[in-house]
Each structure stands twice: as structure tokens, then as C-alpha cells.
Input
Amino acid sequence: MSNIATGHKHANRIFILSCLALLVTAMTFAIRAGIVPELGKQFDLTNTQIGWVIAMAFWGFPAATVLGGFLYNTFGAKKLLWVAFICHSAGLILTITASGYYGLLFSTFLVGFGNGAVEAACNPLISNMYKDNKTTMLNKFHVWFPGGIVVGALVSYALSSMGFTWEYQIAVMLLPAAVYAAMLVNCEFPSLDKEIDTTSGNFKALLTPLFFFFFFVMTITATTELGTQGWITEILSASGATPMLTLALITGIMAIGRYFAGPLVHSLNPAGVLVASAILSTIGIFLLTQLSGSLVYVAAVFFALGVTYFWPTMLGCVAEYLPKTGALGLSLVGGAGMAGVAIFNPIIGAWADEAKQAAITNGATGVELTMASSQAILSNLLMFPILLIALFIGLYVYRSKVSKSV
Output
């Protein structure tokens, strides 16, 4: 990692363990998506209840990022990563041993809290280490979210194919968690600049219309990306495509795109990247409503190209356009994204339940019921990227005017 500005002796190790921690975060997302049908059957859950279980991970995330954002300048990234490890380990073990709906809610919240602690620690850490290349390097760090989803999806598919139950799929994630914890031991982190990294100064910098714009829009970009992927099994179960392999395809494209984000970010600028992302996301979700069989993979490619840059580029915009918001700004915007997904997950589940009930009333059975819920989810989610197109064009015009006036 020769571009790290600090020249810190443990910089390479810090970046690698940060990526491993994000890998665990992503695997929890992918494997949970893969075991949703098994959880529903074993615990006799409705889609709405499954939506609440999924939502707990997304509520745990903002709880950790908001708390971590306020505590980062006092405790630093290393202690937040230890919190992440403890919550990851406890949450995964309690998920395996859960005896019902409420046990799943609590354990999933703990896992989500661990996920949020990773982001609260690593986003400002990496932003500070790459002061002259923030958006590009945040994209490279966030390679490991889609990369981890690829790993998780393939692990879930492989273990399911071999007859292993969902408990074994959850247990697998304890291994990379143990590795990043081991790397934390005796690892010296960069010290904070107490004149710049102050929570009171960060908070004052938040009070601008542009920050509130990013805070709101992050809820929509995150739901477009994670709301769709989180329900991929329900969406594609009657399409003729394999849900977990489709998820692996989507996230594989995302990982490659983020790794090579630098030239694109520099040529279009972050706002331009977001406009293109919204357009491609709209095309991808629309095609998913229209295509079946092997053509679903074509739709998945468009969707993947669209959502690839949403999360890290939104964080990059905050880091570059509002640098004085510091760790607090990054954590609050990241938390807003996951809170948005948490709010919409039960709603997505309700869309599916209502569509199935309407189909039953009309005499539908079997595959027709699944198709009804799939179309309901996708047609409602399509409204999100359509709105984003307008919002990001506005941001692009605004930033163009600001750049010309400077």
C-alpha cells in the first residue's frame, strides 16, 4: 500500500485487517440472504417476520456507527475494531444457538452492531491515511464488501449443495473474524491529530444543507443496493436463475469495479459517477422485472454496474466535499444508509406478503405466488434509482457551479 500518506510502519497490516473485518461484515450479509428460506421454515416465520430479522442487522449497524462516530476521536479505530470482533463472535454464536424468532432478532442485531463498528473504525482511518486520494481508496477498501459477498454466497451455495445446515454456514464466519482479531494484537495504529480530529469541530461542520442531502440520499442508495440483494432469494426463486450464483455474479462485478475505481472517479468526478450509477441501477432493476432464465444474468450485470460505486462514492463525497465533518460525518452517513435499509426491509417483506395474498385470492398457486411477490418487490424498488437520477443530476450541476467559482 505505497500510497498511504502516513508512512506508518503498520500501515499495510492495518489496511489488510480492515479488509478482513469488512469481509466478515459482507459474509454475514450474503450467508444470511442464502439461509432465509431455511430460517423461515425452521422457525415458521412470515416474510414480514423475516424482514424484521434481516432489519435487525441494519439497525445494529447505524447504532454502532453513530456511537462510533462520536467516540472515534476519543478511543480511536483499534478499540472500535475490538468491539466489532466481540459483537461478531457473540452474534454469530447466538444465531447458531437461537431457539426462536426473538433469539434471531437479538443475535442479528449484535452481528449488525459488529458490522457498524467495522465501518465506524475503518472509513475515517482509511480516509485519513489517504488524504489525497480519499474516494479512490475508500472504493478499494470497499472492494471487500462485494468481495465478501462473493465468498459468502459461494460458501452458502457449496455447503447447501453438500447438505450442511444453516448453522454450519454461520459458523464458517468465525474463522476470518478470529484472523482479524489476531492481527489486531500488537498492531500499532496511527495517532490522531487532536487539533483537527475533534468531535465538537466535526459536529459543527455537519450543519450544512449539503450534509443533510448526503444523509438523506444515502438511505435511498443503500436500499437500492442492499434491499435488492438482501431479498435476492425471494426475487429470483421462480426466475430460472440460481439466486446465490446471481448474487456472486453481481458482487464479483462490484469488487472488480471498485478496485479499478480510480480512473473513473478522476475522469467523471464523484458526482458524475453517481449519476451514471443511478441510470444503470434503474435499467438493471427494470430488466429484472422483464427477463427470466439465463437472461436474468444480463439484468444482473446492469444492476451490478449500477450499484458498484454507490456506497464508497457517497462516503468519498462526504470526505472530499465536507472534510471537516471527519469521522462523525462518515459514520452518520454510513449509519443513515443502513437505517434506511432497516426501515425498508420489513416493508419489502410486507410487499411480498400482500402480493402473495392477493394472488391466492385470485386463485394462484405454487410458482405463481413466488412470481407475484418477486414482481411486487422489484416494481416498488424500481422507484428508488429513478429518484436518484434526479437527485444526482442536481448534485452534479451544483458541484460544477462550485468548481467554476473556486
